């Protein structure tokens, strides 16, 4: 069994992430398999909606910091390119996307969930962007997705503090679309509703929705510049090493 798989049900494609349990950490190998699975599903003409989920009790806790911490500083940018391609592929496919979220969706996992058009979360779901606590900024679209779904102050709170948001609160805030104890079943029901609409109209609407409030490609380029600056500063390596070593991180003073 691979790190990602595609299952077709009627007009829906289900992409399931199967990283290392229990949190499905996004290693570079897993990110590439998830990207390829999304691309494969998006290329199928009969697919009218794509559902993204994690196997088991969690969606994904984000990047595999053990893998990243072992890299020399000069390889961090190269290593991140696969995650950039994954983020771009999720936005580029023509079909609407639905995240079925159980348990933790953190960091890159949160960005994959929030990068979907519709998010269905179980009541035990927790969504957070803890990158700043690790010396980084989100690098897969997180700031844009949060600003599209939340008022500025709430988006700022999430990225500045890294605090995870519980499903009930996330629903009240508009961070997730629905809370359901069976996220996959609800996502499949939504996919069936989408399949009733004209596919050309739905695909055009997806493109239009992606352009509001900002063009993803342009804003993402700025986000990646900030991500690379964090890597070059040494804060990202310190954050990863501190996390692995279970110690407080000591970040540089930018003044």
User: What shape does the CA trace take?
Assistant: globular
Distance between the amino and carboxyl termini: 49 Å
Which class in CATH terms? Alpha Beta
Report the biggest beta sheet as strand number plus sense, adding barrel if it closes.
6 strands, mixed
CATH architecture annotation name: Alpha-Beta Complex
> Can you count the helices?
11
Which sequence of strands runs across the widest sheet? 1-2-3-4-6-9
> CATH superfamily, called what?
2-enoyl-CoA Hydratase, Chain A, domain 1
What is the β-strand count? 9
Structural summary, described in words:
With 255 residues, this protein is α/β, with parallel strands linked by helices. The chain has one domain: 2-enoyl-CoA Hydratase, Chain A, domain 1 (Alpha-Beta Complex). It is built from eleven helices and nine strands. The strands form two sheets. Strands 1-2-3-4-6-9 form a six-stranded mixed sheet, with helices on both faces. Strands 5-7-8 form a three-stranded mixed sheet. Helix 5 runs antiparallel to helix 6. The model has no long low-confidence stretch (mean pLDDT 91).
